[in-house]
Design a protein that fits this description.
It contains 16 helices and twelve strands. With 368 residues, it is of the alpha/beta class. 43% of the residues are buried.
Length: 368
């Protein structure tokens, strides 16, 4: 048994979380030694206790490591431990760092340049549009967008990063065989197929619950270089993640919203507490720098059009053809282009980043 396999076993056991594993590894040279330790020695370790010592001593009665490893391989999921070189370096700085990570997709060295984008599950049109704009341009600037694959802001952040041709990592609060929410399976497949990775610290068949989501949040907060909250109420998981990021010494940004909307209360509270008010993606890029995908060279901004009539293809060409110099609503553009609503909103964002389209108040658009 390798050390990674031993950590998988420990991760499968009840009552044995990252903090207890850390205490055990302070006493034993390797995870393999923990699994083979005499019960009397386990009992003497501070905060382990009789019940936990019994579980560790009889660990084979509580988990099937071979089956877990075989199923992960069948599903195309890689399991990495904190002893592996692929393990994200920022997570080593966390006291309760996950022992193992299940990775569907691929992690890359450039993922160290990451920004977490989080917010409400019940996002408004304002929050959705802000999240699209920021995530798209930050991904275009070379940053990996990290979020939690939840409904609302998380989903929008991942979708915008994919639309930008960038990378995104979804850290979920369930096992990868119980992906949640289930309606995001198609998005997860798209991310894993060349746009990043879906990551979990939980065994494959772990169901999501009230405890797994806060555990997930600490990974998001620890992994990122900076964290952006685009929209959230005063009490939400996004606020917890932002506070954790601040404790970990990460830069925290928040987008202000309408002062009479409860959905903006969380961002306003964060700004009062010291988060940086952020009204444009360039504010973050100016603070942290931008990176190209290939060589970490500075990138100025989204590409500028180089001709009066740009060369466009596919959905971009179809949508640009129906746009006018006069302002038009999204509904008008959907009707005239014949494109699905999701395609129109994503394509508008691409055209806006190319400075071909101007966004106007009331979610109306026109040619520049």
């Amino acid at each position: 048994m390798t050390d990674t396999e031993a950590l998988v076993a420990l991760n499968l056991l009840p009552r044995i979380g990252p903090v207890r594993v850390r205490k055990l590894l302070d006493q034993f040279a390797s995870p393999r030694e923990v699994l083979g330790a005499p019960i009397d020695q386990l009992r003497r370790i501070n905060q382990i206790g009789e019940e936990t010592a019994q579980i560790l001593h009889r660990w084979q009665d509580h988990c099937d490591v071979s089956r877990e490893l075989a199923e992960a391989q069948e599903r195309g999921i890689k399991i990495i431990s904190r002893f592996d070189p692929d393990y994200p370096a920022p997570l080593h700085e966390v006291f309760d760092a996950p022992n193992v990570l299940y990775v569907w997709g691929h992690l890359e060295a450039r993922d160290k340049h990451s920004i977490a984008v989080v917010g409400s599950r019940r996002s408004t049109m304002y929050g959705t549009q802000a999240t699209k704009k920021f995530s798209f341009q930050l991904a275009h600037a070379g940053y990996t967008i990290i979020s939690g694959l939840a409904r609302g802001i998380d989903t929008t952040a991942h979708e915008a990063a994919v639309a930008a041709g960038g990378r995104t990592i979804a850290v979920i609060g369930s096992g990868l065989a119980k992906l949640y929410p289930p309606e995001n399976l198609a998005l997860a497949e798209k991310i894993a197929d060349g746009h990043g990775a879906i990551v979990s610290e939980f065994p494959l068949h772990t169901e999501p619950d009230k405890q797994t989501f806060p555990q997930r949040n600490r990974i998001v907060a620890a992994w990122c270089r900076a964290l952006l909250v685009t929209e959230c109420p005063a009490w939400s998981g996004a606020m917890i993640t932002a506070n954790l990021a601040s404790e970990y010494g990460k830069s925290v940004y928040a987008i202000p919203g309408p002062i009479d909307k409860p959905t903006s209360a969380g961002c306003h509270q964060l700004i009062r507490d010291g988060a940086t008010l952020c009204a444009d993606p360039t504010h973050i890029i100016d603070d942290l720098g931008a990176f190209s995908f290939d060589a970490q060279k500075p990138l100025a901004a989204a590409p500028e059009p180089t001709a009066e009539t740009p060369v466009l293809e596919g959905d971009e060409a179809k949508l640009f053809a129906v746009l006018d110099r006069e302002e038009m609503s999204v509904d008008q553009l959907i009707r005239l282009s014949g494109l699905p609503a999701a395609t129109v909103t994503g394509t508008l964002l691409k055209l806006e980043m190319r400075r071909l389209v101007k966004a106007l108040p009331g979610f109306r658009f026109c040619r520049r």
